[in-house]
Write a structure and sequence with these properties.
The complex is a heterodimer. Chain A is built from 3 helices and no strands. By secondary structure, chain A is mainly alpha-helical. In chain B, helix 13 (332-357) packs antiparallel against helix 15 (378-392). Classes of the chains: A mainly alpha, B mainly alpha.
Chain lengths: 103, 494
Amino acid sequence: MIPLSWYLLVAAALFSIGLYGVLARRNAVAILMGVELMLNAVNINLVAFWRYGRFPEQPVGLAWAVFVLTVAAAEAAVGLALIISIYRHRDSVVAEEMDTLKN
Amino acid sequence: MEFQVPTINILLIAPAAIVAGWGVLLMLIELFISDEAQEQWRQIVPGLALVGLALAFIQTVGLWGYDGGTFILADGHPMIVVDNFATFLNIIFLLTGALTIFISVDFLRRTGLERPEFYMLMLFSISGMMLMGMANDLILVFLALELLSIPLYIMSGLAWPRTDSEESAMKYFLLGAFSSGFLVYGIALTYGATGTTQLPGVMAGIANGGSLALAGAALLLVGFAFKVAAVPFHMWTPDVYQGAPTAVTAFMSVGAKVGGFAAMLRILIIALPGLGDVWAPALAVLSALTLIVGNVVALVQPNIKRMLAYSSIAHAGYILIAVASAPASPDGVSAALFYMFAYLFSNMGAFAVVIAIERKTNEGVMLDDYKGLAKRHLGLALAMAFFMLSLTGVPPTGGFSGKFFVFKAAIEANLIWLTIVGVITSAISGYYYLRVVYTMFMQDGDGEVAAPEALKWTVGFAVLVTAVLGFIPGPWFDIARQAALQGMQMVAGG
């Protein structure tokens, strides 16, 4: 059986890729994709921890992964709506161009 | 693998359930409102939302002194805990909601933002905040945090198609989603390290969790630091507060912050006391940074909303002092609770005055617009001066009592250096708070002031409570102490 640490490494790598995406990408949609990658990394972790955990008879990790998916979907719905609303007025979704707010 | 239905006591979850259910109900009713009746509907929605909050408030107050839980799983652990800590915080959240409604009805009408969904989204957000204080399970903490945040993202963009409001919503959304990624990753690692998501179970297992548990706790702290706007995770705060409609800013400056601290306190005290010697110093450093950056940057803000944003960052720093002293001082948690209660009224009152001065959305929010306010509307100017003194921490105000208890707890916890940082930054904060007072009383200017009855009464109520907290803080602190004690007792009892 594949050891748990492999899954954790994959999840950590995925989380880091998502993190990089959020920090380095300029397009708001791409930033949102980075966030989704981070949440998916969490899901891998949760399912792996459940499978290798002390209480595999309690499907806590599985149930939780479903919650995370649902929340991610709700977040994406709100986020994409905001992005569309901004795109209609500015013809751009580049995060750096949203700079009207400063002192 | 089998699924067991948890034991549910609906009365205990009622406060949050009423608020959330009321929001759903109002949304459903709106579907059946004809176009002709829309105008009347808009008139009565704020009142209806208040009724929902009042029902929840009655239920919440009735639960004072109760100590128990519901959604009890097969192993006997409740997912939702109702104790005085949760009840105290629920009262703060419901009051925040009610005060926000009172100050925003006329403001939203005047600025053309009279959208009934504002009130419904606010109800959803409040139910999320209430669950933050009651959550005894990391899964529920995550769900509550999202329930708190997602409506706030939408509310920040309420003034669409205004660019600043949309930009504020976008920034809040991106950084909020980013931070909840950290939080949920931290929760997942904690789950991996301890094999459970229940806070008491986490406490029992965290000692053997090793580096996985440490990493999980660190990521949890980062997630919460984003939510409560602690430096260096505060970058979103000024932009979001400035761009969002002022009623929304008022709501989230109190609600979201206290909500973040609610879950943070419960997790740190109940699930992670074993790591107290790790997180307490980390929070102390975070707190010092927050105090310095928040107070110093606020000095140069010409926009009052931006100034209050940095001020709210600074106040997160004072609450963090109390949290950092919680492991070593018996009064750390109660000082944090008292501070948040006092902050609610000072800050809400200040925002009420900002709303009265604001002419259109985000116009009339510069410091210059406060020139001569004393001549235009003496009552509001005096109230604003009082709130500014309270936020500075000058006696006899609620803000002073709050700072006094926080510093006392910090000294008990032997965090002398942090107390000194807190006192010095308080003195610095006097400059930018009192500059508002100076502008109102010593300079001349003109402009309309919109102070309808509801807003005046709210300001008066906030002044009254702030004064009472300043003159006789003792009994109130005893209440906060009762609220905190049960949280601590649960640690002792496991």
